Amino acid sequence: MSTPAFAHAPDAPAVPSTPWRALVLLTVVVALVHLVLLGAAPLWPGAAPSPPASRFVTRTIVVAPPEEEKAAPPPAPVQQPAPARPMRQRQAAPPKPPAADARAADPMPAAASPEPAAESDAAAESTSVAATGAANGNADAAAAPVPIEEAPVPTRIPGSVQLNFDGTASRGATPYKGYGELMWLQDGNEYDARMTLKAFWITFRTQHSKGTIGPTGIEPTRFADKRKSEVASHFVRDRQQVVFSNNAPAVPLLPGAQDRVTVVMQLGALMAGDPARYPPGGAIALQTVGPRDADIWIFKIEDDEKVNVLAGEFVARKLTRNPRKPFDDKLELWLAPELGYLPVRIRQTESNGDGVDLRLRNQAAVRR
Question: Exposed site from 1, 99, 238, 278, fewest CB < 10 Å?
């Protein structure tokens, strides 16, 4: 039995050759087309890509060493909660003793009642003027001023007279010429005094005082000061008060009190009544009432001086009232013994340096 040259495996399926070859060919063509496109991409017209875009670049990133760490502030101490304070039992206040009167039970603050304080101050001054001057730093207090007395003191009241003065006033650096006139009228029981200041024959200030003559000398009842308008002070002796027309608080009236006009005449009357009582180096204290207030004026008694005025040459006793408080005026008086201690010169200086200087031109006796 013979064997065939070509034998086929039984049941082997037949694979068509043409479709398989076409698939392989298509795959090869597609791969070639992709290669061609990728290789020819740089040849397309347009902006050329940057060199890093056409190749793979490896970048090295250098990391800077970290800065030195700043010293961190120390942590804030943790506040411990304050231990709770033990509660104390409120103790009952001891009972107050019964008040002696209504004022003690319900006291009024001192600032709400200035008048009693003023009265006590005035009483202290009337008791010891020297102590008051020392408390205010006044050197005149060392002169041991004659205390204010309720008992009658020797006085010699001058008779009615008219004193005419030549005046020089200063306001700033400008001096002014003027005139002064002191009219003093008295009949032994009552008096009337008027001080007038004039410039260019025009009266620009008048001070007027009225009252009686009593055991202590001159005792004013009313004082008025007039410039553009008049302001007055009243000496209410039955109530021992000085009352002001401008509604300022009333002040106690002290023994021997004077006003701005009569203080000059009273000083002369005291010295004429007993010259040995007021030697140089001493002082005289008088409550002096103005149009709006009252204060203790202390006059230091100085040595005699020669004074030349139009009325003549006089040996006069000088008295000086120095300022005791801010804005006080300085007052200097020259009283001539040969004229019964009438003033031959009066000089008043304000705190800013302005002032007036009156020098006696002549005197004339007058009848009331």
Answer: 1
Q: Which of 253, 268, 264 is nearest to 221 (CA)?
A: 253
pLDDT one-digit tens code per residue, 310-333? 999 999 999 999 998 888 899 999
**287-320: b or e for each residue (b if 16 or more CB lie within 10 Å)?**
bbbbbeebbbbbbbbbeeeebebebeebebbbbb
Query: How far, in whole angstroms, is CA 306 from its chain's centroid?
Result: 44
- On the question of pLDDT at 79 being above 80, the answer is no
Q: Which pair of structure tokens corresponds to residue 306?
A: 């020669």
Per the listing, tokens 């040259």 go with 5
Average pLDDT estimate for 77-102? 47
CA atoms 252, 256, 261, 264: torsion sign: negative
Say if residues 238 and 188 touch (Cβ distance below 8 Å): no
Tell me the C-alpha to C-alpha distance, in Å, between residue 225 and each of 85, 151, 154, 184, 288: 70, 30, 29, 16, 14
Amino acid at 150: E
Rounded CA gap, 320 and 195, in Å?
Answer: 20
- With beta carbons less than 8 A apart as the criterion, state whether 255 and 116 touch: no
Output the six-digit token pair for 173.
Answer: 């650096």
Rounded mean pLDDT, 88-96 = 47
What are the DSSP calls for 288-336, one per residue?
EE-SS-EEEEEEEEEEEEEEEETTEEEEEEEEEE---STTPPEEEEEEE
Residues 218 and 87: beta-carbon distance below 8 Å: no
Read off the amino acid at residue 195. M
The SS3 call for residue 24 is: helix
Q: Are strands 283-289 and 258-259 parallel, antiparallel or unpaired?
A: parallel
pLDDT tens string 114-151: 333 333 343 334 333 433 333 333 444 444 455 455 55
pTM, full prediction: 0.62
Residue 153: which pLDDT band, with cuts at 50, 70 and 90? confident
pLDDT band at 171 (very low <50, low <70, confident <90, very high): confident
Q: What is the pLDDT of residue 173?
A: 77
